[in-house]
Specification:
Layout lengths: L1 H76 L3 H44 L4 H5 L1
Helix pairs in contact: 1-2
Length: 134
Amino acid sequence: MSHRILGILAILTIFLVGQTWVFAETEKNSQQEQKTQFKADVKAVRDQLRSERDALKSKYKTKIETLKTSRQNELNSAKTPEEQETVNQKYRQELKTLRDNAKADRKSLHENFKQTKESLRSKYGRPNKDKDKK
């Protein structure tokens, strides 16, 4: 009788150990898939950021080229040095405004990227390592 009980307990123990191992492997695979998906999502967000940044770059490059052309046309039509200086001052101010706008747009893009990355971190339950270091 006691041998039967010991045999049944041994079988149950083996079964439970096996189930625990299966559960652990399943959990490990799930975490690995989640990590891979997180990395893929972050890469997609980075790629989108790069393409938006490149689009902004070309947009402002075009605006600056247009501004340079219009400045040159105005300089050619200006007859006195005072008129030329006025054109140059106007050009400098417009160029400064364009650069400031470009800088603000890039900063906005970067902030959006950081927020998106943080939302991905919270979605996948991955802590921010940078915040832990501080």
